[in-house]
Design goal:
Elements: H1 2-15, H2 22-28, H3 30-47, H4 51-65, E1 68-69, E2 74-75, E3 80-81, E4 88-89, E5 94-95, E6 100-101, E7 106-108, E8 120-121, E9 126-127, E10 132-134, E11 138-139, E12 144-145, E13 150-151, E14 160-162, E15 167-168, H5 173-186, H6 200-228, H7 237-242, H8 245-251
Parallel strand pairs: 1-4, 2-5, 3-6, 4-7, 5-8, 6-9, 7-10, 8-11, 9-12, 10-13, 12-14
Antiparallel strand pairs: 14-15
Length: 259
């Protein structure tokens, strides 16, 4: 237990630049308090069959910390809960080593049936503030869940899921390298977001717009060649004016993409 406590304190200094002293971490961090209570008291009681007592004591832990961890949940080592208020971790949830959860996260179920009904987070997962991960799904090792995302399907290892419902962000190798380099400096990705992260739906729309703009340019070149060869092609301006990728991108909030 002391080894777990030392690791829990050390990991706060690794992932929270606001931490100043061990005494401050031990006395002022509700995430540390909730994990200590879960590991030392409620989870052992639950595993020993004293389930009412485990639930009652976990209720008091929620009262004091604002973090609700069901005593049946399985939590690995060096898990960091930052701020923590409003976190809910269900009975059959599993959290792997070195994972990070921010405030407002829910690891919830989608079924009233017995058995496995809560998510499994593999090692090194970062879950941003307000995210909801629902059902017996698996979030792969090193994956990141963006703030306020609602995840209802498995997330591959190393992927980033954002949006409602969450979608896997298309991987831009150069941009991903920049993010990973910055994350290495910081030790983690704060709130599982980055300043250059785009909604994958918008990315898909922008790709379609790019394709349409390229097709439009080729069409114009083809019409110009036909007209030079003496073929009458009629008035194509009405069609050209109807499609303006710059205007659509401005509507989507990405004014600089084609401008």
């Amino acid at each position: 237990m002391l080894d777990h406590l030392r690791e829990d304190i050390a990991v706060v200094f690794d992932r929270d630049p606001a931490a100043r002293t061990r005494w401050e971490v031990l006395t002022c961090y509700p995430g540390v308090h909730a994990l200590i209570w879960h590991r030392a008291v409620t989870h052992p009681l639950w595993s020993s069959g004293l389930r009412w007592l485990a639930r009652w004591l976990s209720h008091w832990s929620r009262f004091w910390t604002g973090i609700e961890i069901h005593p049946g949940a399985t939590i690995g080592r060096r898990v960091f809960i930052d701020h923590g208020m409003g976190i809910v971790i269900g009975e059959t949830a599993e959290i792997g080593d070195d994972s990070t959860l921010y405030h407002g996260v829910t690891l919830g179920g989608t079924s009233w049936n017995k058995g496995k009904r809560h998510p499994t987070l593999k090692a090194g997962v970062v879950v941003g503030a307000g995210a909801k991960i629902l059902g017996p799904i698996v979030v792969g090792e090193g994956a990141k869940i963006g703030s306020n995302a609602v995840v209802v399907r498995d997330v591959p290892p190393g992927a980033t899921a954002v949006g409602i419902p969450a979608r896997i962000q298309a991987r831009d190798t150069e941009a991903a390298s920049r993010r990973e380099a910055q994350a290495e400096k910081m030790g983690f990705a704060a709130y599982a977001i980055a300043s250059d992260m785009n909604d994958p739906v918008l990315q898909a729309i922008h790709k379609l717009l790019d394709h349409a703009a390229e097709a439009d340019a080729r069409f114009d070149a083809l019409v110009a060649q036909l007209m030079r060869d003496g073929v009458e092609c009629g008035d194509t301006m009405a069609v050209a004016e109807a499609f303006d990728p710059n205007q659509i991108n401005r509507m989507l909030g990405d004014e600089d993409r084609h401008g």
